[in-house]
Write a sequence for this structure.
């Protein structure tokens, strides 16, 4: 096929490279520096700080291909996916950007050249239409006088409701900030002359928007005032899937090459042959979004990004169920998808098994929920008379079966039924209120507590101090006192408890005075205040009273050993792997440490051993660990490791471990490296694209781990009756022996299968020259049953084979129908009759299908009925 999606993507990048642009990789789907976004939804997201003037650019001309996800907020396409030809959850955005370099004329000329030049996309100029902001005369003249677009094909888009700059062709980053007019390029599929210009532009079947070019030339000061920017920018976006549909001459994004191959693969598992089926499109779209979300190390959960992922997975499974996919299929699509993505990176391939494992688990967990939820929902739909499902029913499905409200809304929408959402929210809020009462407060504290005050941390040098109780909170409300067995948060004027910060977990310990005692289970920051979260175990504690605070020293010391070891690890990684091995996250607890860092290559055992050796050498050197408060410029001159594009106070705390490690850090540390004792890496893994993770132990925990490993090897040696020195050879010999035994077992099984086939051939019924075999086996090897069915189909050539395998209280059914008979009787039809009668599960295709269930008692009756049903069909000369 000419102009494959991959070729189109590459042509775009090649064109702009030829025009002097730096080709940069797209950003992560998880925005790095924008808390307002759950996911990257446009190519400009990663350059937001450049447009705002917060960062200096390294390049003046850039082109990217950006992975985008639109599933919520202002850009929410989830509900439209599959029902239109253009909407997607996941898509690729082609974009070129200019920062104080070229502007309107060049941006428009580049776009026109790429689209119309024979060397590039070679689109018919006569099929391109343009929209401009009504007041942007300069852009209008460029299109009219320089590009020579006929004026009847240049549409001016004005302001809505007579509000200045309130136009579809005037782009704004927010209520204030950079903004400017835009011009859009549309491709003409067909023209309906009965429509107005506005109706024409709103009809994707007539005109399809393929490229949006934004001229960022103003700064919005208020609702009514904008001023010119000293430095102007260009921000463009062209959806890869849309331009591919144009260049491949199809009227739907779902008909482009990559989607068609994916849809065909999915249809293989379904009973749908119409590749234009809405559910097929939804599954194809969603599987791409799911794949890339899990590739970014997001896992299904009930909150934040994990909730969005779970929501998409469950919506996909519901539509798979609609098209007859009742088996675990999700993970089987992933290898095909990886081939279609065609990105030259081994990282995606590395993620394949992880993604498949997550999808298998999620599909198994939700399959029962889906079946039960749909059954109840169908029952309720039959009862309603006013086309409205009660909120109580919707909440019952959610609360009892975990059936998401989004899924209920999706199903009801398809049937033209509404949900009483006010009633639903009433039940949900009531449940939340009851749930909050039941929860342990110190594990579920409310970070929304805001106190306009400051705590002083004195814990770098002191483990016990006398403090003043300033505030007490119980169930998120300020109180004057807290009594025995009550859970709450206590805030002091000063404390030696370190709050969870920078990856280091919070301190534990106690607050006490005479006969009163408050057990601190966790310590957290609440703005500038430090909250001690826990429970009163004796007495009553009152606000404005004096109290002693004392940390658990053993707990703190263990944390400190791991934190200092983390600094040694960071330095060792840079020494062994190179300066690009930079920290991306960490966890420092009392039991272990975890360190995430950037690194694109694989890490081998040899490198792991080198890292351990370097760190343990520094531990044996027993270096003094010092801290100094320096201004930020002094810290930089000392080559302290830090994320200098983050915001720091002018004075920063720097931790020195001789000249081996110098880092900015606010955490607590031991005073000498020798106290760490020993450092042992126990795990190394990939977290996400280009991010590695190392887990390690120190001190007594590391020694315990080595003791455990030593005991394990000794236990294995005893089992194998060998010495530690020859254990490896012994295991190799055992593996070889097992393989030989398996080979012999396969040979015996093959003989058994051959004998079984001979016996079964004698039990074949002959009806109208068509052979019918139904037989019940007992505890037979399931793999062999499949082989036997295939072999019988080849032997009999014109046959229907039904083999049932009883295993204790359950059964499996394997059915084969030769191809010449499937126009009237199919294997999946037969299997469906069995599983319907026994509430089982199954799936397959016309020629081969299998399933199973638990109700063995019904099998003889079902077999008798199925034989009669098939016999009647055969006798009636259907074939």
């Amino acid at each position: 096929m000419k102009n494959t999606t991959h070729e189109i993507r590459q042509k775009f990048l090649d064109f702009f490279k030829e025009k002097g642009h730096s080709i940069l990789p797209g950003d992560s789907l998880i925005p790095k520096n924008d808390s307002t976004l759950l996911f990257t939804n446009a190519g400009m997201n990663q350059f937001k700080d450049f447009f705002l003037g917060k960062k200096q650019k390294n390049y003046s001309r850039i082109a990217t291909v950006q992975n985008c996800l639109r599933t919520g907020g202002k850009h929410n396409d989830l509900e439209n996916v599959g029902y239109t030809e253009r909407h997607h959850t996941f898509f690729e955005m082609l974009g070129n950007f200019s920062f104080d370099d070229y502007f309107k004329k060049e941006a428009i000329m580049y776009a026109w050249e790429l689209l119309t030049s024979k060397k590039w996309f070679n689109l018919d100029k006569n099929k391109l239409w343009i929209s401009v902001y009504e007041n942007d005369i300069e852009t209008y003249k460029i299109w009219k006088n320089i590009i020579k677009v006929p004026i009847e094909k240049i549409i001016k888009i004005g302001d809505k409701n007579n509000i200045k700059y309130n136009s579809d062709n005037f782009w704004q980053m927010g209520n204030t900030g950079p903004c400017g007019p835009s011009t859009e390029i549309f491709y003409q599929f067909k023209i309906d002359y009965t429509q107005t210009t506005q109706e024409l532009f709103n009809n994707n079947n007539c005109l399809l928007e393929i490229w949006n070019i934004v001229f960022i030339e103003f700064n919005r000061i208020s609702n009514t005032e904008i001023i010119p920017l000293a430095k102007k920018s260009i921000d463009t976006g062209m959806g890869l899937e849309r331009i591919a549909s144009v260049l491949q001459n199809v009227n739907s994004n779902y008909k482009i090459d990559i989607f068609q191959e994916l849809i065909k693969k999915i249809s293989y598992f379904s009973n749908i042959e119409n590749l234009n089926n809405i559910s097929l499109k939804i599954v194809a779209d969603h599987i791409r979004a799911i794949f890339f979300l899990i590739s970014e190390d997001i896992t299904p959960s009930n909150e934040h990004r994990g909730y969005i992922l779970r929501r998409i997975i469950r919506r996909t499974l519901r539509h798979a169920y609609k098209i007859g996919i009742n088996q675990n299929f999700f993970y089987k699509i992933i290898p095909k998808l990886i081939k279609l993505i065609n990105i030259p990176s081994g990282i995606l391939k590395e993620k394949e098994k992880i993604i498949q494992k997550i999808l298998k688990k999620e599909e198994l967990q939700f399959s029962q929920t889906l079946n039960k939820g749909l059954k109840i929902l169908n029952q309720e739909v039959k009862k309603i008379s006013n086309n409205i499902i009660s909120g109580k029913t919707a909440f019952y499905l959610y609360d009892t079966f975990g059936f998401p409200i989004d899924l209920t809304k999706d199903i009801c929408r398809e049937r033209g039924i509404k949900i009483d959402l006010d009633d639903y929210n009433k039940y949900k809020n009531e449940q939340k209120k009851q749930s909050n009462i039941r929860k342990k407060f110190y594990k579920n504290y409310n970070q929304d507590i805001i106190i306009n005050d400051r705590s002083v941390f004195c814990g770098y040098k002191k483990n016990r101090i006398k403090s003043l109780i300033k505030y007490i909170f119980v169930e998120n409300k300020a109180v004057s006192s807290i009594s025995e067995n009550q859970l709450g948060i206590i805030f002091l004027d000063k404390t030696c408890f370190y709050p969870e910060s920078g990856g280091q977990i919070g301190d534990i310990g106690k607050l006490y005075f005479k006969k009163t005692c408050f057990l601190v289970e966790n310590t957290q920051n609440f703005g500038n205040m430090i909250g001690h979260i826990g429970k009163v175990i004796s007495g009553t504690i009152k606000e404005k009273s004096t109290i002693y605070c004392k940390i658990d020293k053993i707990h703190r010391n263990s944390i400190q050993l791991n934190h200092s070891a983390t600094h040694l690890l960071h330095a060792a990684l840079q020494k062994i792997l190179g300066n690009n091995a930079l920290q991306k996250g960490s966890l420092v607890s009392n039991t272990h440490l975890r360190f995430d860092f950037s690194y694109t290559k694989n890490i081998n055992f040899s490198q792991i051993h080198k890292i351990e050796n370097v760190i343990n050498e520094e531990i044996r050197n027993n270096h003094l660990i010092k801290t100094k408060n320096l201004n930020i410029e002094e810290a930089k001159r000392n080559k302290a490791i830090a994320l200098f594009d983050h915001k720091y106070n002018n004075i920063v705390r720097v931790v020195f471990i001789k000249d081996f490690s110098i880092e900015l850090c606010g955490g607590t540390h031991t005073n000498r490296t020798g106290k760490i004792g020993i450092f042992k890496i126990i795990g190394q893994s990939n977290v996400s694209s280009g991010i590695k993770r190392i887990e390690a132990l120190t001190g007594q925990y590391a020694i315990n781990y080595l003791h455990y490993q030593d005991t394990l090897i000794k236990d294995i040696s005893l089992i194998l009756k060998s010495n530690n020195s020859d254990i490896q050879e012994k295991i190799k010999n055992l593996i070889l022996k097992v393989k030989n035994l398996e080979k012999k077992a396969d040979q015996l099984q093959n003989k058994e299968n051959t004998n079984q086939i001979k016996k079964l051939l004698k039990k074949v019924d002959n009806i109208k020259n068509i052979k019918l075999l139904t037989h019940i086996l007992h505890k037979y090897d399931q793999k062999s049953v499949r082989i036997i069915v295939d072999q019988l189909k080849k032997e009999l050539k014109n046959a229907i084979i039904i083999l049932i395998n009883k295993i204790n209280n359950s059964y499996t059914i394997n059915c084969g129908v030769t191809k010449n008979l499937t126009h009237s009787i199919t294997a999946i039809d037969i299997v469906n009759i069995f599983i319907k009668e026994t509430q089982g599960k199954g799936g397959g295709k016309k020629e081969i299908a299998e399933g199973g269930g638990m109700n063995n008692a019904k099998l003889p009756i079902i077999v008798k009925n199925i034989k009669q049903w098939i016999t009647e069909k055969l006798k009636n000369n259907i074939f």
In short: Residues 375 and 832 are 17 Å apart (CA to CA). Confidence is low (pLDDT under 50) at residues 435-444.
